[in-house]
Specification:
By secondary structure, the protein is α/β, with parallel strands linked by helices. The chain has ten helices and eleven strands. Helix 3 links the parallel strand 1 and strand 2.
Length: 358
């Protein structure tokens, strides 16, 4: 179903139904066993630093089971590990993984469109070279915090070409592996290619990276088949109709639904303004109806009691802050904004709507 063209209330109902179905599937015995089996076979913990652009969906692009990859999103994939909250969240994540005996692989991503620069990253004003330079700055910060020997934590620079959802893996000596240039016949040589491209990556980590790349090859073939059937054109353009602020949005596995903003930057108003501008442009161009858009704040919690209560306050703050920014800078959108506030039980992936207003 093409949800983009439905009235706003139908889109909101569809969204919360999607979250419910995702949570039910995540909690199912089969899905739990599949995750446990996958992690037993591929123990490396993988985190992805990526843009808020709704087209950047690495689990879908790599055919990876839900709940395996840990996402971190911000405008343009712009991060600074000196930001207090971001640094604490990443350090806590690494410490928790390492304490259970797992290495950590960071996908540090940028994105672009090979068909049209204007379908690239608006956060960097469509300047891919600037986006790549920033990913290497993040890589250096990761090395500063966790070490440059890469024995436990590995920062991997990775491009994402949004026309075909193809990954581009950057090697240690300036080489690149563009998966869009490979075919199914290259599967047999993928392991050797990775060893030559990333000689300083631990062997187990390379073995755990391999399924993502093989999954991406399959996904690229699917995308190309869609393009041949003329089913892909709209998916490579901005069609987002909701702004998500916070964390816990991995149920949004449909492309071009949402602009997702992590709560990391000290200047949180900047990505909110950028996202609101994109929503306004989508309405003006007729890519989505102009009858409304959704602002959804979500904060995850691990435990009931204090942890959940704190998540409620934080989520309410985020939704109020974002609504005020949008109302002040985009008054014409204010009357079309439906605001919902939620918390997410991280263990069960249950999204709990704790209030909203139109």
């Amino acid at each position: 179903m093409d949800i983009h063209g439905k009235p706003i209330q139908q889109r909101i109902d569809w969204l919360f139904d999607l979250a419910d179905r995702h949570g039910a599937n995540f909690r199912s015995p089969e899905a739990w066993l599949a995750r446990e089996r996958y992690l037993a076979e591929h123990p490396t913990a993988i985190a992805v630093l990526k843009c808020m652009d709704g087209r950047i969906n690495i689990p879908i692009a790599t055919n990876t089971p839900t709940g395996i990859l840990m996402p971190f999103r911000n405008l343009g994939g712009m991060f600074d590990l000196g930001w207090p909250h971001l640094g604490e969240v990443l350090a806590h994540h690494v410490q928790r993984m390492v304490s259970s005996g797992r290495r950590v692989l960071f996908f540090i991503t940028y994105h672009y469109s090979k068909g049209d620069p204007q379908r690239g990253c608006a956060g960097f004003n469509y300047n891919t070279d600037a986006a790549i330079a920033h990913t290497y700055e993040i890589r250096s910060q990761v090395e500063h915090i966790f070490g440059a020997a890469h024995g436990t934590v590995y920062p991997l620079v990775c491009g994402f070409e949004t026309d075909e959802d193809a990954l581009i893996i950057h090697g240690t000596n300036g080489e690149k592996l563009d998966l869009a240039t490979l075919t199914s016949a290259d599967r047999a040589t993928m392991e050797l290619r990775l060893a030559a491209l990333l000689p300083d990556m631990p062997a187990q980590m390379r073995a755990d990276l391999l399924p993502l790349l093989q999954g991406n090859l399959d996904h690229i073939e699917t995308i190309r088949a869609q393009m041949r059937r003329a089913e892909r054109a709209l998916d490579i353009e901005h069609r987002e109709w909701m702004i998500c602020l916070g964390r816990g949005f991995d149920f949004l596995h449909t492309p071009n639904i949402a602009l997702i903003i992590g709560p990391y930057s000290p200047n949180l108003d900047e990505p909110i303004r950028t996202a609101a501008g994109i929503i306004r442009a989508n309405m003006a161009a007729g890519r989505v109806p102009d009858d409304g858009f959704l602002l959804l704040a979500s904060v995850p919690y691990d435990e009931i009691g204090v942890d959940r209560a704190r998540a409620e306050l934080k989520s309410r703050f985020l939704s109020k802050f974002a609504a005020e920014v949008i109302s002040a800078d985009f008054p014409e959108l204010a009357g079309k904004m439906a605001v919902h506030t939620a918390v997410l039980d991280w263990r069960s992936r249950t999204l709990e709507d704790i209030g909203g207003h139109d």
